Amino acid sequence: MPASSVVDAAAKGVKLDRHGGAAVLLRRASGANKHLVSASSHLLFRATVLATLALVVLFTLHYPSLISHSFHLSSSSSRRSSHRSLLGSSSSSTSYRGATWAREIRRSAAPRRDGGLSVLVTGAAGFVGFHCSLALAARGDGVVGLDNFNAYYDPSLKRARQRLLATRGVPVLDADINDAALLARLFAAWPFTHVLHLAAQAGVRHAMRAPQAYVASNVAGLVSVFEAAARRADPQPAVVWASSSSVYGLNTDAPFSEDHRTDRPASLYAATKKAGEAIAHAYNHIYGLSVTGLRFFTVYGPWGRPDMAYFAFARAVVAGDPVTLFADARRDFTYIDDVVRGCLGALDTAGKSTGSGSSGKKKKKKSGPAPLRVYNLGNTSPVPVARMVAVLEELLGRKANKRVVAMPANGDVPFTHANVTHAARDFGYRPTTSLEVGLRHFVEWFVRYYKIDNANAASTTTTSAAGKPRSKRKSTAMSAAS
Question: Which domains does the chain possess?
């Protein structure tokens, strides 16, 4: 048979045998396609994994601080609540609810004296918030505190304040001011007459390392509190909140007056506080919310903030660490008891809010517009920082290893000086504590809290914020945060 006939016969055979050899060929082709798809899938998966790993490596190289910060926040389950994000946490929304919780809020918020205030204190486990909460409770006002216990400085100090407040009948909720649902439940549980809003991200220099924390707390958090007070609470409470002397920024006119310009902030921290004053004006204008801003001037005293100059210097003197001073720096150091009297005076004289409550309807204004006030709370007597160190040396019985340097461009300002005429006129504010007396009270608390043998300070090693011995010598620079 010719070769052509064989080929034709074979071709015809394939056409006719639909269920025979052709099916086998089709099955083989299908199997090959499946293998091809499977191999492609494996290659795609491996490529995706490799690309992801490459991105992680690149992100780690370019943003190591963010990676380490995230690991730090999640590495210790025992301190998880202390490291809660400034943007809020769902745990407070789910934990603080129910009839039992509401009864506890009402019990703590109810005044125990005729004409007493009912005050929600934010940042109650902080330095100023702690002392104000103690003073309010001592005179019979109802107090409920709120704090997110973030790790800007040692949370164990904040927890110690919380425990002491609990012994005085003041609960401090572990929650965040950006938790709008929780704030709404608090105002629904009890008609607070006042809010003392002291929660904020503090520190001038830290703003250069963590700018978003300042926006989240000092701007977004302030709006959250104003929203709750102006639109969720009925009746609206009066709000007294912590601004800062830092708003005076590059102002050189002394003493600083509330009438001076505040449009030249020297740091992001100052800018967020200045923004807060503008936001306060808007809520007062739109919602008739009574708002009082207090510009604190370098507050110091027992139970203070470890990042502040006097606190850090005391540790350095005891530990024998170097102390770095900025040349010619002067501060209007204001003792905590004087500041507390100013805060309570502002609360006592705050006018009533006149705007809308939870109904959203405008109420009839009976006594004119709600007040919008701003006051300086300072000592009125600037002191060279070198003088403050000399007082600490005398009280601690040891000389400091001082190093004087020029002031860097890091947000600090050369001096602060408060004019308190307006506060004196409106609620009798008169600071009475000298730096020597105030630092003596601080040192008495300091050596007791950290168990320092002050009689033998020259050979004593202080503890770190975490309670560990400090052996490594570090230079302690002045913090001008107020």
Answer: 87-477 (3.40.50.720)
